[in-house]
Amino acid sequence: MKIAIMGAMPEEIAPLLEKVERYEKVEYAKNSYYLAQYRDMELVIAYSKIGKVFAALTAATMIEKFGAQQLLFSGVAGAINPDLKIGDLIVATKLCQHDLDITAFGHPYGYVPEGSVFVESDVHLRKIARRVAKEKGIVLKEGIIATGDQFVADPVRKAWIMEEFGADALEMEGASVAVVCDALEVPFFILRSISDSADMDAGFDFDTFLESSAKVSADFIMTMLDEIDGDRDQ
Ligand code: SAH
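^ thats the input. predicted complex w/ S-adenosyl-L-homocysteine below
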């Protein structure tokens, strides 16, 4: 089984590389991919750089060039749902692109013909995550994640995204990874730990909590890997 683990920024994959200890670094398409063996699994780990385009390129590369059969995303996000506090974990049930807009032609926000507003993540991987959370006593929220090429630090934009998409959290990569994995029929899982609340203080909070929240997410992903490995042995 070959599993891709992806982040957007170096801070999001650093705790993963630390945990796997030994890896081979491969350069491709102006990015670095880290190949490692963990238990009985082969891993390909990378950070994409920020935003939907880089994230789509990296996800497609991990699948098409490196042969990943499942993709797990680990990173940080801005909270929309007031129940989500800094450091809390949220798993995406489904994802949408909040900045995709051809409403001038009568389409809903987030929709283009032959696409769909929401892409659903893999049910089985979510089930494994729930099991891990229960075993470890970790609170894991599930909800909708909205993605766009904007760092949201604006209560008005945040409220609009909540109303339009019912989103619980927002970030800049998840939905593009979802579109790629869905098209290539690769099960995917998007996990985020909250770094800020997408309001006026978001920039400051993000800088303060990026590293600690990224680690919360990465640690959970590593625990999930143990479970995925065990799951396969059964
Ligand atoms: N400080 C960085 C930029 C960070 S952009 C720099 O200067 O290079 C924010 C990153 O964290 C993105 O990868 C996004 O997915 C996530 N994120 C966290 N909070 C966010 C928010 N409020 N709005 C959008 N993305 C957010």
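The mean pLDDT is 97.
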